Amino acid sequence: MSETAAEGIRLLDEGTYMVASPDAMRRLGELAGSVLRSGDVLVLTGDLGAGKTQLAKGIARSLGVTEDVTSPTFTIMSAYQGTDMPLCHVDLYRLASVDELEDTGIFDMLGEGVCLIEWGERFARALGEERLDVFIERMDELAEPGCEPPRLVRLVPCDVRSSDIVADLDGLVGGASHA
After folding, report:
1. Contacts of 66 (CB under 8 A, 6+ apart)
2. Cβ atoms of 36 and 61 closer than 8 Å
3. How far apart are CA 115 and CA 40, in angstroms?
4. Parallel, antiparallel, or unpaired for β 86-91 and 114-118?
5. Could you tell me which residues are beta bridge partners of residue 176?
C-alpha cells in the first residue's frame, strides 16, 4: 500500500482512526472497501455532516462503482453494481419503527454484496450481530479556523468476520502510514 493511500489517516488504536479531511475519509473508505467481501454489513453512525456518505463514496469507488454515490435519505435505499459485487446503501434516518424497517426490503439485500446502513444504530438488534459498527465523530475543537474539522472514526466489531475487517484495515492504515 502506498504512503498516499493512507494520507490524512492516522491509526490511533485498534480500530480507531483520526481522519484529517473529507478526501481522507474517502481514502479510508477505499481502504475499507479493499478488505470487504460479499455479505459484509457496516452500520454507519454519526451526526449530520460527520462523514458517513464520504466514507460510503470511498467504499463504492473501491468496489468499482462508477455512479455518483449520494445519501439515500429520501429514497431510503440505493443499489449500485460494482465490478465484482453489488453495493447496497441504506439511510434509515426517516424510519420510526422496526415495522418500517421490514417494509424497506433491507433484509432481502443483506448478504447480496456489501451493505452500508446509515442511521442504523436504532435498529441494531433487528439487523443482527453479523455487522461492523462504524462511529464517526466530528472533532470540532481540533479544527483550524475556516477549515473542516478532523473526524474520529471508531470501528466496533460485532462478530468474527468484522473483527477480521478491523485487523485488515488497521494493517493497511498502519502499514501505509509507517512506510
Report:
1. none
2. no
3. 6
4. parallel
5. none
